[in-house]
Amino acid sequence: xxxxxxxxxxxxxxxxxxxxxxxxxxxxxxxxxxxxxxxxxxxxxxxxxxxxxxxxxxxxxxxxxxxxxxxxxxxxxxxxxxxxxxxxxxxxxxxxxxxxxxxxxxxxxxxxxxxxxxxxxxxxxxxxxxxxxxxxxxxxxxxxxxxxxxxxxxxxxxxxxxxxxxxxxxxxxxxxxxxxxxxxxxxxxxxxxxxxxxxxxxxxxxxxxxxxxxxxxxxxxxxxxxxxxxxxxxxxxxxxxxxxxxxxxxxxxxxxxxxxxxxxxxxxxxxxxxxxxxxxxxxxxxxxxxxxxxxxxxxxxxxxxxxxxxxxxxxxxxxxxxxxxxxxxxxxxxxxxxxxxxxxxxxxxxxxxxxxxxxxxxxxxxxxxxxxxxx
Length: 375
What we know:
Blueprint: H1 11-23, H2 30-43, E1 47-51, H3 54-64, E2 72-76, H4 82-89, E3 93-97, H5 108-114, E4 119-123, H6 134-143, E5 147-151, E6 159-160, E7 163-164, E8 170-174, E9 187-191, H7 194-204, E10 208-210, E11 213-214, H8 225-256, E12 269-270, E13 276-279, H9 284-293, H10 310-314, E14 320-321, E15 325-328, E16 335-338, H11 340-348, E17 349-352, H12 360-374
Parallel strand pairs: 2-3, 2-4, 3-14, 4-5, 5-8
Antiparallel strand pairs: 1-9, 6-7, 6-12, 8-9, 10-11, 13-17, 15-16
Helix pairs in contact: 1-8, 2-8, 3-4, 3-7, 8-12
């Protein structure tokens, strides 16, 4: 089976893990500090704060900015649920706006129209490895005194005009097993504001200003030394694996031209292809089943907008959908709010393998089978 994702790890990671185990320093220590320093350099920012997951990064970034009850955060419903769950976790309200159907990222015009006196932040999602249009979002945020918290969990090394994601606001990254670089679990907050970094460090470590002196209610969201050591090694490989992903994506794009709707890359942007996601207007489930039968794993990222997840449907007072259209629910007289481009995406998207471990013959097989099924 050709897998949809595969961690790119080797003997270097094994050796780094052994060194940490031999050192006896397993909790947060010098390897984590080194990983933070190097990741800050990658993102061209002053500070990076390692935490236990990408979700932790989002939550602590919000809290470090003082965002909480009665505040609204504008974001995308076409994302993994953690994007909005982090907003709920600090007591704020997710406000969902629609996406651009070509990049699957926030539509800046929809963002501007959704701002209210309660809006405190915009959380753009750099989905699949393609940057959100920060060149349009930044002026909107500045004009309305809003915080930018970038959900860059899928976009390590992506850039806009040569400027890395994670440097436009407070960046949040994930190192989950399927991400472009991995520490198994883990996350990172990036910022140019030392005060935000200090607050995040306080919040990840039980609110300890000094040992056994807890000055605020906080959490255990630290990164371990094993994770830090893996991160240091993985970071050395990031450019290589990114080039592999880009090359694999370029091959698929050339082979699938005119057959399916392929990923686009906005001018001036570097797409790092966490996922290679096509759109199929019909027969998606049939294509998925037939590709699986031929030994090719695929995935649908994501089959439901966050606002249609069961928990959100059970708790509609916890979120708001802005600039929606109304649609009659099939088989019911109930009229429901929807975001049309988001709904179109969840019906049509399909991710194909693009990871750097793919062999040439596997790429050829993926392209050949998709063409045969979709032409």
